[in-house]
Task: inverse folding
């Protein structure tokens, strides 16, 4: 009996063909890349690699991209192999690190490789779960560093979501690591039904057995859009809706408690509602809490409270009060929860545990929940297919839609999973069907060497070998691998250009092409002018919405006449303001800038009782009656399309076009030649784009050389016998794994942090570890003079470094951010959570409890590196003291 036979005999379920194929490849000592949908069971191949290593007396490392997934996988493997055989390393947690099987975050393994750790001895297998994280913009390089630097004797087992270029990725793995088998399946063990919810009714998105949109669904939406004449005004999210003569809504978006009730009636719970903002998740939870709806039995409610109380044991009562713990505990005991990165880690872990146990039935989550954590549900609900990315509202990609809906369907529990999209005005079911039909997305490398990587590669491999290694990266492979196709395309475009030129009259060819280029330039500039105008209009609209106060009556453009609405709740933020309004027709809900072509106009005020502002949907009748009684100066007409003025460049180009000789030709001849000319200029553009791609690019090797040149100037590298070598200072830089690694190394080298006490050191170190997500109007401050001096010196050092980087044509290091310094100092000095959150807000950073804990942990991580790399005993000792002082309360529990 083979080891695979023994492994299968110990399972209580049958393996799918792709799982057996993956396990056979592992047993035959091949590298493996398994690409399968979320929930398909690809981790069984990684678990078999663990079993193989243990049976042979060798080691297996199981890497994951996030700590939560590492913790989960650690407990899974302990349940099978026992505590003695399995360890856990996540940066801030170390359990049985010398075990034969160690679960770890990917960065931990990268650091081990560079340090030449003896823990790597006898390592034969590395499982890289969620290996498609290699395409992550911020952290993807770590995956390539590991793949490129692991000893060639180690077999890599990559587990990935289904990507469209899996063969290309597999070919690269084979090129750099040897024989790698690629196993791809798009089979879901729990099939996924696609639905669209319109009002209280849920329709299948597709006709049975086809990819054609359900005809009944389209007819229903057409009826709504044809009868609700005011629906054109607010196109994104939820639109303004007219009321029928009998007082009933023709279409009204349901509140979350009503949606939950509909899903409950169709046996579609438990469900995850994906909402693309933390505030939206918290608001949805509060809405369900206010509704008094209960999804649990009394016994389940008591069990939930017991688990919660155990999970928060050790958090001070005053901190729990700041976190509104009682309300949160009450909502969970009734079966509702929120889950997002802004929550306290201990709270998130409690939600995950309760959901897995089946005690929580509804979770309102941001998209971070879709990344790896094993929390499948029977249904996934998407309220919108648009998300705010920090700069603008953008449509979900097919890859994002697949990742989110992949959480629907629990293997071994459900026979079907449900993906439910809530219909909103202007949402096209055909576009939704396009998202639902696309199962794959490409994996693109983001690999680029940095300072820490450069000195580690140089130290481990030498200069020439490091260059060769970088040229073997997936990033370079993707660039070079496409050159042949680009050259072939160039040849076709050149033939097309020659053909088009032959169609022009020889004596007028240059003039016609010049005229066509002028028309193209005008068209581009008009498009840019319109885009700029839309952006300006959106900014104006946001400014208007952010300033609206309770009771102000606004007029917005309607299809036939302007519509009036009263502000019930003002916006709670300025970047993406979303005030709550109730219209004269009785629609009530939040509006945002994406729904307006032109800004609304304030036309008066209305007195609103407190019960209306607190419960707007329940009191729409009061508002409707008030609009009938009061008269407001409604504009006779408002433009439904954006007003746009031509830029000076557009005006100038139009004048040049009119004055051009070709413009005076007979219209028919001119347009015929101009069409050929336009095709010619378009082909010219295509050729220029392809030439730029095919021309030898600024390779990773050249980028590496420029880094080495800068580090040589700064004495982190020296030239010995014509070869670059790492100096003692470079050895310290090699141990600093931080986005601002070189700046930190410079601060330590210059001694500008040496005279700080532990709390001051923690505060100043935060400049290089903190990244503000939301800002307030506050200004960064520091409580002591030594801290002020060190912060100013750090800023000056960054300015010098940025100038050097620009001179060497390198990306500029992240600018220090001081908004967290005061809060970090106070926390390390022993202040309570509420005090520190207020200190952050005073300094310009708006933080949730989860943001605060994550930021403190990032500073702790940097301080631990300072404790190893500082130049004096005093700074190393103070760094250790700062770590001990900061790791307490909410930071120590649940992380």
Result:
């Amino acid at each position: 009996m083979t080891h695979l036979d023994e492994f299968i005999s110990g399972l209580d379920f049958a393996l799918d063909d792709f799982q057996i194929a993956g396990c056979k490849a592992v047993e035959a000592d091949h590298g493996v890349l398994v690409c399968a949908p979320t929930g398909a069971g690809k981790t069984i191949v990684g678990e078999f690699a663990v079993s193989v290593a243990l049976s042979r007396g060798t080691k297996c490392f199981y890497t994951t991209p996030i700590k939560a997934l590492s913790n989960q996988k650690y407990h899974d493997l302990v349940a099978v192999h026992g505590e003695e055989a399995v360890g856990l390393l996540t940066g801030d947690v170390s359990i049985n690190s010398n075990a034969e099987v160690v679960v770890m975050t990917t960065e931990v393994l990268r650091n081990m490789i560079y340090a030449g750790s003896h823990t790597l001895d006898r390592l034969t297998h590395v499982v890289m779960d969620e290996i498609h994280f290699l395409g992550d913009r911020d952290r993807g390089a770590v995956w390539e560093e590991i793949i490129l630097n692991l000893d060639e004797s180690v077999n890599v087992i990559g587990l990935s979501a289904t990507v469209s270029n899996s063969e290309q990725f597999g070919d690269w793995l084979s090129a750099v690591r040897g024989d790698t088998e690629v196993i791809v399946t798009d089979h879901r063990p729990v099939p996924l039904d696609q639905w669209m919810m319109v009002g209280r009714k849920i329709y299948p998105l597709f006709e049975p057995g086809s990819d054609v949109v359900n005809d009944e669904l389209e007819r229903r939406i057409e009826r709504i859009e044809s009868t609700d004449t005011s629906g054109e005004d607010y196109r994104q999210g939820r639109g303004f809706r007219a009321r029928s003569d009998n007082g009933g809504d023709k279409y009204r978006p349901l509140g979350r408690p009503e949606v939950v009730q509909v899903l409950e009636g169709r046996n579609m719970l438990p469900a995850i509602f994906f909402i693309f903002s933390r505030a939206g998740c918290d608001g949805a939870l509060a809405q369900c809490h206010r509704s008094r709806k209960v999804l649990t039995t009394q016994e389940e409610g008591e069990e939930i409270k017991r688990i919660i109380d155990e999970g928060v044991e050790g958090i001070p009562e005053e901190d729990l009060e700041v976190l509104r713990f009682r309300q949160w505990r009450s909502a969970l005991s009734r079966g509702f929860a929120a889950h997002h990165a802004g929550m306290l880690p201990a709270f998130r872990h409690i939600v995950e545990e309760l959901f897995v146990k089946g005690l929580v039935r509804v979770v309102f989550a941001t998209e971070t929940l879709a990344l790896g954590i094993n929390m499948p549900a029977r249904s996934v609900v998407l309220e919108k297919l648009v998300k705010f990315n920090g700069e603008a509202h953008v449509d979900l990609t097919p890859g994002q839609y697949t990742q989110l809906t992949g959480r629907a369907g629990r293997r071994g529990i459900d026979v079907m999973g449900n993906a439910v999209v809530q219909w909103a005005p202007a949402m096209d079911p055909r576009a939704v069907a396009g998202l639902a039909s696309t199962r794959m997305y490409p994996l693109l490398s983001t690999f680029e060497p940095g300072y820490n990587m450069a000195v580690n590669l140089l130290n481990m491999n030498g200069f020439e070998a490091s260059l060769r290694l970088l040229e073997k990266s997936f990033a370079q492979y993707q660039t070079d691998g496409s050159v042949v196709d680009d050259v072939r395309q160039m040849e076709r475009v050149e033939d097309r250009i020659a053909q088009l030129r032959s169609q022009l009259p020889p004596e007028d060819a240059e003039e016609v092409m010049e005229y066509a280029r002028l028309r193209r330039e005008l068209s581009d500039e008009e498009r840019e002018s319109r885009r700029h105008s839309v952006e300006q209009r959106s900014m104006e609209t946001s400014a208007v919405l952010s300033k609206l106060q309770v009771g102000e009556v606004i007029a917005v453009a309607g299809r036939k006449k302007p519509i009036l609405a009263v502000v019930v709740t003002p916006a709670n933020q300025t970047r993406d303001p979303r005030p709550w309004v109730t219209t004269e027709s009785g629609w009530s809900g939040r509006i945002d800038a994406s729904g307006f072509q032109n800004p609304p106009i304030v036309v008066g005020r209305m007195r609103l009782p407190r019960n209306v502002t607190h419960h707007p949907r329940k009191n729409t009748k009061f508002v409707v009656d008030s609009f009938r009684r009061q008269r407001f100066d409604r504009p006779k007409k408002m433009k439904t399309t954006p007003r746009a003025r031509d830029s000076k460049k557009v005006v100038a180009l139009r004048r040049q076009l009119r004055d051009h000789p070709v413009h005076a030709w007979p219209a028919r001849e001119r347009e015929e030649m101009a069409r050929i000319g336009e095709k010619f200029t378009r082909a010219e553009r295509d050729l220029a784009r392809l030439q730029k791609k095919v021309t030898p690019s600024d390779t990773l090797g050249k980028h590496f050389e420029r880094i080495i040149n800068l580090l040589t100037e700064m004495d982190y590298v020296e030239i010995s016998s014509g070869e670059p070598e790492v100096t003692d200072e470079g050895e310290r830089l090699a141990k600093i794994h931080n986005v601002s690694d070189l700046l930190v190394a410079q601060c330590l080298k210059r001694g500008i942090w040496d005279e700080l006490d532990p709390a001051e050191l923690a505060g100043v170190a935060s400049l290089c570890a903190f990244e503000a997500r939301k800002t307030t109007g506050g200004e960064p401050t520091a409580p002591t003079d030594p801290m002020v001096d060190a912060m100013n010196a750090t800023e000056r050092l960054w300015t010098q470094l940025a100038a050097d980087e620009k001179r060497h044509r390198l990306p500029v290091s992240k600018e220090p951010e001081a908004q967290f310094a005061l809060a970090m100092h106070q926390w390390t000095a022993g202040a309570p959570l509420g005090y520190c959150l207020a200190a952050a807000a005073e300094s310009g950073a708006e933080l949730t409890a989860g943001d605060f804990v994550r930021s403190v942990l990032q500073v702790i991580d940097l301080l631990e590196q300072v404790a190893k790399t500082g130049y004096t005993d005093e700074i190393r000792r103070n760094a250790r003291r700062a770590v001990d002082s900061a790791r307490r309360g909410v930071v120590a529990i649940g992380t």
Q: What stands out?
A: Residues 228-249 have pLDDT under 50 and may be disordered. Residues 25 and 625 are 72 Å apart (CA to CA). The chain has four domains: 3-184, 190-265+376-381+401-438, 496-697, 735-892. The chain has 35 helices and 24 strands.
